[in-house]
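Fill in residues.
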């Protein structure tokens, strides 16, 4: 079946429909982004100590790129990390920053290794990029873009603002009607909320809508970005901000910008799980832990067979891409590479303690 992008260049598909969907991206390259989340607190009274380690479910987020690419003429795949943004707004200490950098490099290597092993002919190249453009402009300028689109589209941006506030304080927004406290928070200058607005605008630079000189090698036609359900919120902001910046001259950012009218594909997962690059966290009594298969916890991939929340994502992988046995073999073989790289990166970052 042929699918068309809407007036905002966005297409929303259920994951099960992607296999048979005919999607023409018009010679664009494919971009898919991920980030490093803030550390979580494992138990009451302790400092943030849970980082987002590489987990075996990670690859499931990136599999739609394969299904789309197979229907094109070998596009380039650009794996974009928002690490620089995470270091500014998600890391509280120097140690957290170094651990985020290491985790990010390990995820990049694993993803690139996976594509080279199982899908070497699908993409013309697979490139790993830490987005630089979002940190080339001031945070004040990011907020200026936010306020300008808020003036142009007040009703629509209010809904986006509400969603971003829910991400930050879900318990405050669990009622249908806004409480006084929730309204005050929405209208506040809370730093975390302001960072959410800046983060939303940063998607334009990270995903190639607004480009400066050298974030990555540019496709003259542009890009197709692929994301999960949570990206719908940011895609609306991207559309409005692109519309705004088309009417601005180069003095707005103080430098030449290259605008790309990119396509946006959202893949809806039937399970409401956090993106695999963040990991799934679960409480056991008073303790919070990363409920995934990692090399550190030495769990077998069979763990996911009994995991109600995550099983369907792994089954999607097994049924459409890599067999259960082949993935288990690959995971086992990559283990040595993983710990070798981790040790090397730790030395480079000056981290003496294992994490």
């Amino acid at each position: 079946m042929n699918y068309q992008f809407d007036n905002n260049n966005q297409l929303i598909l259920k994951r099960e429909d992607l296999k048979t969907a005919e999607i023409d991206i018009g010679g664009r390259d494919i971009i898919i982004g991920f980030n490093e989340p803030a550390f979580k607190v494992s138990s009451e009274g302790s400092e943030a100590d849970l980082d987002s380690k590489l987990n075996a479910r990670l690859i499931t987020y990136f599999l739609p790129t394969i299904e789309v690419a197979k229907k094109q003429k070998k596009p380039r795949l650009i794996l974009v990390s928002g690490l620089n943004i995470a270091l500014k707004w998600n890391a509280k200490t120097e140690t957290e920053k170094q651990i985020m950098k290491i985790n990010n490099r390990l995820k990049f290597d694993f993803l690139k290794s996976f594509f080279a092993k199982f899908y070497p002919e699908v993409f013309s190249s697979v490139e790993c990029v830490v987005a630089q453009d979002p940190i080339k402009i001031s945070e004040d300028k990011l907020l200026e873009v936010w306020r300008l689109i808020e003036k142009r589209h007040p009703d629509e941006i209010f809904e986006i603002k509400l969603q971003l506030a829910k991400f930050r304080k879900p318990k405050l927004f669990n009622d249908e009607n806004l409480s006084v406290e929730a309204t005050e928070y929405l209208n506040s200058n809370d730093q975390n909320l302001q960072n959410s607005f800046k983060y939303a605008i940063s998607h334009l630079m990270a995903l190639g809508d607004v480009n400066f000189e050298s974030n990555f090698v540019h496709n003259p036609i542009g890009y197709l970005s692929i994301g999960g359900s949570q990206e719908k919120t940011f895609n609306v902001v991207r559309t409005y901000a692109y519309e705004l910046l088309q009417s601005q001259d180069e003095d707005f950012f103080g430098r030449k910008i290259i605008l790309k009218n990119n396509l946006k594909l959202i893949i809806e997962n039937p399970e409401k799980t956090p993106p695999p690059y963040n990991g799934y966290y679960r409480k056991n009594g008073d303790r919070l832990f990363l409920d995934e298969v990692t090399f550190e916890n030495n769990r077998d991939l069979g763990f996911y067979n009994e995991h109600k929340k995550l099983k369907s994502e792994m089954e999607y992988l097994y049924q459409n891409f890599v067999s259960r046995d082949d993935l288990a073999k690959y995971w086992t073989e990559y283990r040595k590479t993983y710990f070798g790289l981790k040790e090397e990166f730790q030395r480079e970052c000056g981290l003496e303690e294992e994490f």
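The chain has one domain: 10-137+208-346.
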